[in-house]
Amino acid sequence: MHIVIMGCGRVGSTLAHILEDKGHSVAIIDQSPEAFRRLRSGFRGRRITGFGFDRDVIAEAGIERASAFVAVSSGDNSNIISARVARETFGVDNVVARIYDPRRAEVYQRLGIPTVATVRWTADQILRRLLPEGAEPLWRDPTGAVVLAELDSGHLWVGAKVGALEEHANTRVAFLSRMGEALVPERDTVIQDGDIVHIMANADDLERVNAAVAARNGEDS
C-alpha cells in the first residue's frame, strides 16, 4: 500500500519506519524541514514540506493513489482538517487522526474519522500501573463509552469457570492472559492461578464489575 503521514514527530517517524519495513511505500509531510532529521538515513519514502491540509501538498505526497492517510501532527485542528480533506476530497477510506482533547472524539466519530486520543490513552496506561488492583481500561472506543479492561482474577476466582464469573459479575470476558499468551476462553474454561481476565464493558459499569468480582462468595464453581 501507499500511505501518507502528516507529521514527522516521534509518532509519525516511527510509523513511517515500521510501515516501510513492512514493505509499504510512504510519503511523510511536515511544515518544518528540520523534522525530517528524525527519519533514518536509509528511509526511501518521500519527504514533503508543507501543511497536510493543503490540497496541493497532499496531492504531491501521492494522496490520489494512497490506501491510507494518518494525521499525527501536534495540532488537533490541523489533524482533523487534513483527515477530512483526505477523506472527503480525495476519497481515502482508511483515515486516522490523533487528537489531544478526548472531548472532541465523539464529534469526529460522527464525521466518520477514527481518532486516537493520546491524552486519554496515556492517562489510562499510567492508572493501570498505579492502581493494579482494579479494572483500568486497556482500550476505549473514541466516544469513551465502551472499554476493554483488565481484571486481576485473584485467589477467589482460581478454579472457577469463566461462565461463572460472567454470570456473577454480569459482564463479558473477552480473553485471558495466561503465561504471557492470550487465550479466548469458552464458558467452561477454568481460571488458573496467575490468569489475567480481560473484559469488554460499558465504562460506567467498571466500578460495579470490580465490586462484584471482589464479592465472590465461593458458591460459583
Automatic annotation (TrEMBL):
It comes from Actinomadura chokoriensis. InterPro entries: K_uptake_TrkA, NAD(P)-bd_dom_sf, RCK_C, RCK_C_sf, RCK_N, Trk_Ktr_HKT_K-transport. The keyword Ion transport applies. Signal peptide: none annotated. The keyword Transferase does not apply. Gene3D superfamilies: NAD(P)-binding Rossmann-like Domain (3.40.50.720), Regulator of K+ conductance, C-terminal domain (3.30.70.1450). SUPFAM superfamilies: NAD(P)-binding Rossmann-fold domains, TrkA C-terminal domain-like. Keywords: Ion transport, NAD, Potassium, Potassium transport, Transport. Residues 133-215 form the RCK C-terminal domain. This is Trk system potassium uptake protein TrkA. Residues 1-118 form the RCK N-terminal domain. PROSITE patterns: RCK_C (PS51202), RCK_N (PS51201).
